[in-house]
Design brief:
Layout: H1 2-5, H2 12-17, H3 22-27, H4 37-58, H5 63-74, H6 76-85, H7 96-100, H8 105-126, H9 128-138, H10 143-148, H11 155-167, E1 172-179, E2 186-193, E3 196-203, H12 206-221
Antiparallel strand pairs: 1-2, 2-3
Helix pairs in contact: 4-5, 4-8, 4-9, 6-8, 8-9, 11-12
């Protein structure tokens, strides 16, 4: 893992703790380290400060735009992607159940949290300068692509822009089905360009299902 990160740790146990999920401790209560949640708490703050400082120093854009750019860099999907690129999945300490569940949303959050915990570990072991360099080297290099492809926009906004650019029309959304009791609704929503159904999305609210449909439509059209 040191090789993947490009950092030689003074205290290897800090690095090890960064990849210990609490589920592992349920099955191994005598393990000599705790879970990674405190390191995640620290790493989240370090990550946000490094990204915010970089954006402030390098761009003159309004605060609202910089906030959207930062959100695109530090959201769970992006951080989980970074963790996978560094092969962190191979090093996680997980329960047997979590280990089997490789492609779930839960695994995405575990990976995102582990990435933040790794930043916390780097900061504790190596200090600010190495942490700053690591985040710039691994994460902030993604910023030009995010800006070029407008990935800082939510999927609905991105699909609307692309649809208007390609076809001159604004997409519409139609509820396909609504199931479940009032306290646990489940919606399926279709997104249409003119009369063509492009994709279906699902969620616990109409808005969530629309966002999922737009995300799927971007993939179907190859605009993601």
């Amino acid at each position: 893992m040191e090789q993947a990160l490009g950092i030689k740790f003074k205290n290897i146990e800090i690095l090890r703790q960064a990849v210990v999920h609490r589920s592992y401790l349920n099955e191994h209560p005598d393990f000599h380290l705790g879970h990674n949640e405190r390191l995640e708490f620290l790493g989240d703050a370090v990550l946000e400060l490094v990204v915010t400082k970089h954006l402030y120093e390098n761009y003159e854009n309004p605060e609202g735009e910089l906030t959207n750019w930062r959100a695109a860099l530090v959201n769970a999907h992006m951080l989980a992607t970074m963790a996978r690129e560094l092969d962190i999945d191979d090093f996680l300490y997980l329960s047997k159940g979590e280990e089997r569940d490789k492609d779930s949303k839960a695994r995405q959050y575990i990976l995102a949290n582990a990435f933040e915990a790794l930043i916390g570990a780097v900061y504790l072991d190596q200090g600010w300068d190495v942490s700053d360099d690591f985040i710039k080297r691994v994460l902030l290099v993604k910023l030009p692509t995010i800006l070029e492809l407008k990935l800082y926009l939510d999927p609905k906004s991105r699909f609307q822009e692309a649809s208007q650019e390609q076809f001159g029309v604004t997409p519409t959304y139609k509820v396909v089905s609504e199931t479940g009791p009032d306290h646990a609704k489940h919606f399926k929503v279709a997104v249409l360009v003119e009369s063509e159904e492009v994709a279906i999305g699902e969620g616990s609210s109409k808005q969530e299902a629309q966002i999922d449909a737009a995300k799927n439509a971007l993939e179907v059209k190859g605009w993601s």
